[in-house]
């Protein structure tokens, strides 16, 4: 938005007016067609258009250039009234220095510096306002540490203020303690549930292991029985072998007689088991060899 034309003293060349807002150019840019605009005006225009607002020639944001130097100089030298004229400032100065003036202008409107005060006063009346502002406050002189509004100083009571704050802090603390207790309880509860689950899992594992152990024990018992039987058989076989060797030795020493071809004595025969038939066969052959 440009500067209000009303504020200018004397004639303002039409070339220094914005083609969008028709006020005096503020932060000016110009198009290739040499029409000039305030920067904010032309940027706003080009959001919805792509032509110069004056002659409708095609225009893109990248075509915009700074104003000619001589025009910038003309603009800077225009005489303008202070924006705080309605507040009483009579200053008139060049456009290029009006900002500097306005920042220090005694008639500039300022917000009251007291928090919460809605009053706007001119810089020159601020001090007077602060003396009477009902939002003025100061730190309590009795040492409670509270900042007290001037208007409430008569009613201020350090003890009751401090007690109220203490009550508030206590309530806050109670609330926090309750929160923490609740959180701890819920955490413990979830841990307890977890432990119960784990315990039942472990119980079932132990049961399964017990079952496996009893199966293994019965296997071991079977194997031990088989081993015992095998040993007994082995011992029996050893005995038979020894007997047979004894027999063979005797046969080898004695001369062969017809009676030799007779079956072995009843004592030996008794001992012959089906398993030793082969050995028995060998014995017979041996005897025959001896007879021959
Ligand atoms: Zn403008
Ligand atoms: Zn144009
Ligand atoms: Zn002023
Ligand atoms: Zn105030
Ligand atoms: Zn106090």
Automatic annotation (TrEMBL):
ZnF TRAF-type span: 101-144
Molecular functions per Gene Ontology: zinc ion binding
UniProt cross-references to InterPro entries, sorted A to Z: Znf_RING, Znf_RING/FYVE/PHD, Znf_RING_CS, Znf_TRAF
Alphabetical list of Gene3D superfamilies matching this protein: Zinc/RING finger domain, C3HC4 (zinc finger)
Keywords: Coiled coil, Metal-binding, Zinc, Zinc-finger
Membrane spanning residue stretches: none
Domain of life assignment: Eukaryota
Residues in TRAF-type domain copies: 101-144
PROSITE patterns linked: ZF_RING_1 (PS00518), ZF_RING_2 (PS50089), ZF_TRAF (PS50145)
Coiled coil: 227-254
Domain RING-type positions: 18-56
Signal peptide interval: none
One BP annotation, GO: regulation of canonical NF-kappaB signal transduction
PANTHER family recorded: RECEPTOR-ASSOCIATED FACTOR, PUTATIVE-RELATED, TNF RECEPTOR ASSOCIATED FACTOR
Protein name as it appears in the record: Uncharacterized protein
Organism: Onychostoma macrolepis
């Amino acid at each position: 938005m440009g500067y209000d034309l009303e504020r200018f003293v004397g004639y303002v060349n039409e070339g220094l007016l914005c083609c969008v807002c028709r006020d005096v150019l503020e932060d000016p840019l110009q198009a290739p067609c040499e029409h000039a605009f305030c920067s904010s005006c032309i940027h706003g225009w080009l959001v919805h258009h792509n032509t110069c607002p004056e002659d409708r020639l095609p225009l893109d944001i990248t075509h915009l250039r700074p104003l000619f130097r001589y025009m910038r100089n003309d603009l800077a030298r225009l005489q303008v009234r202070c924006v705080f004229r309605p507040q009483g400032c009579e200053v008139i100065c060049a456009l290029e220095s009006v900002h500097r003036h306005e920042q220090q202008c005694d008639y500039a409107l300022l917000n009251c510096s007291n928090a919460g005060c809605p009053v706007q006063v001119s810089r020159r009346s601020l001090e007077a306002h602060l003396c009477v502002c009902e939002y003025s406050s100061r730190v309590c002189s009795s040492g409670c540490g509270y900042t007290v509004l001037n208007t409430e100083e008569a009613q201020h009571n350090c003890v009751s203020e401090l007690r109220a704050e203490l009550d508030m802090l206590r309530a806050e603390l109670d609330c926090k303690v309750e929160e923490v207790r609740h959180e701890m309880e819920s955490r413990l509860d979830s841990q307890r549930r977890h432990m119960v689950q784990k315990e039942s899992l472990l119980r079932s594992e132990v049961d399964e292991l017990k079952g496996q152990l009893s199966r293994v024990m019965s296997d071991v018992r079977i194997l031990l029985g088989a081993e015992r039987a095998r040993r007994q058989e082995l011992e029996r076989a050893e005995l038979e072998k020894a007997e047979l060797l004894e027999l063979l030795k005797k046969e080898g020493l004695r001369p062969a007689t017809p009676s030799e071809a007779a079956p072995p004595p009843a004592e030996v025969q008794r001992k012959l088991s089906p398993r030793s038939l082969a050995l028995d066969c060998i014995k017979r052959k041996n005897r025959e060899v001896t007879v021959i």
